[in-house]
Amino acid sequence: MRYYSLNNHHHFVDFKEATLQGQAPDGGLYYPENIPVWNDDFIKNLKRKSKLEIGFDIMAPYVGNTIPEKELYGIIEETLDFDFPLKPISENIYSLELFHGPTLAFKDVGARFLSRCMGFFAGKLAQKIVVLVATSGDTGGAVADAFHNIPGTEVIILYPSGKVSPVQEKQLTALGGNIHALEIEGDFDDCQKLVKMAFLDEELKENILLTSSNSINVARWLPQQIYYALAMMQWEHDHEPVVAVPSGNFGNLCAGVVAKQSGLPIGHFMAACNANNAFTSYINTGTYHPTSAIPTLSNAMDVGNPSNFARILAIFQQDHRMLRETISSIAVSDTDTLKTIKAVFEEFQYVLDPHAAVAYRALNEYFTNQPERKGFILGTAHPVKFPDVVKTAIGHEPVVPKVLVELMKKSKTAQLIPPKYTSFKAATLEILKNR
Ligand SMILES: *Cc1c(COP(=O)(O)O)cnc(C)c1O
Hints:
Bound molecules: pyridoxal-5'-phosphate
Radius of gyration: 21 Å
Strand order of the largest sheet: 4-5-13-10-11-12
């Protein structure tokens, strides 16, 4: 499989190059040359396969010959090393719980696959791979955990001081080893600016391979298809489900749509958004107006200009009418998010996190006039990661799982630095010198 840049359809790279580069040199997103079509047997036999076989069969064509089969199987095994249960909430809505991984969020899947691929490629490189991440919360934790102890890699995480939750901060700062946290005296935008400047700094890049790990990387994006197939393995109804995806940068939704293109029998998608509704407006009006982000209770979806928008357009060849046949979108307010968490807890004793609540609300609204339909939401984070929102909605915090109790006992190690490039660079060089 080759990948081309969506900015230049004549620039091709293989999976290894696309993974190591993250983004094409022209700033475009990498996109697969063709989307594999799964044969009927693969779909019919889904229920008889193991989750590892499914993961391997989905990813093998994308990886091509850049990773040998045996190693790829090992990578899949480590990527899917937890449960993906499809749990009923109401009569017609289920939740695909994607939060049973080490950092309790769906980003664990993409981050683990990416880190192990990079680890494999690092083994064959003369330079060290240095991953730079700016995080407002969840991404950094998943990336830190995924890369911890992966040989040949160092991870430097920049996070805004005082602006991530206590759990998130521990996930970024308690691991040690090859994971280094820089606590920036500024906001998330400052962190992002420093990362962008680092990528333009030729001197810094002299002896290291500097790379990013955000969701535009194909090795983080594409493996997200696997759990859509794992959901269909558990789907017991004759009708094809409607799948509601709480969306921010739209990597998750976009992966699901690719899986449907390959033949996975998903009926329709609901792109569930919060007040950051540029995509919802696009679906409903055909015009796209990206904005700056508005803060909401479902903050991992606070994105004004979703980075995977170009990929969604590519899937449907820019045809708005075709896109609408596959994807609907509804935007949900914070007030309705809180009401939904409360109502679902009271009626079904199921605790939604604010992101899943947005999806539940949107899907429920979509089903209002078609009560015979059924579907599932993607449970993208464990409710315990958003204890304040849950408490506001239902009056108490969710039960804390054992992994978090252990994590909170660990101590924080982070270097506090001002939001200046010179300070950041000095700290980075010092970290790398000592490794
Ligand atoms: C990152 C994130 C999202 C948004 O996912 P995208 O792939 O960026 O659309 C939704 N929910 C949670 C909990 C997240 O961490």
